[in-house]
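Sequence in, structure out. Go.
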Amino acid sequence: MATNDRQADTTTTTEDGPFLHSAMSKPPELPWPDISNRAKWSVSSYKFGFGVECLRDSDPDTFWHSDGPQPHSITLEFPCKMAIQKISILLKFSQDDSYTPSTLAIRAGTGPSDLQDVRIVTFTKPEGWITFDVSSEPNDDGDGQSPVYAYVVHIIVAQNHMSGKDTHVRGLRVLGPIDDELGTEDDIFAFKNPEYKHYETLR
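Output:
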């Protein structure tokens, strides 16, 4: 069964950039570290029993169910400025139909008052976990996208399939860069050579 799950992982390139798609219901094993638990989570609205906890419980049979005016949104607030590389989201059009998001707008910043649009992604009848870069800016090496450095990430459901009003999201993870030494923006100026590493714990 695990072999079939691995074979189901595919990468597709669209006009929105490369998407990593996993047909597994459980969160896929990815090289990027999951930094979701470092953040305070909130949602714009929810039905009782279908709140923000359903985004984080790794159960594909539960889901966040919005229950308020559009646009619906998910907000993550980190205690320090974090390097944010990718978002993984679990969507199931076959079960959720018009409740399934078709367009997401990703915003980031230092607080709610200065959020900037960093990415817009679109889906067509998605099934499974979809992983995509938060930024559309290429990195210095030209082999991927740069991370976004932010205290706050705001994920807006800009549109649902078939113009649905409320939305279902069955799972969400926020991932950092593979090089976790760049976990926060301040770290990029830290001394990393062996001599300084040897003495960095001395008091």
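Check: Residues 1-7, 182-203 have pLDDT under 50 and may be disordered. The first helix runs from residue 2 to 7.
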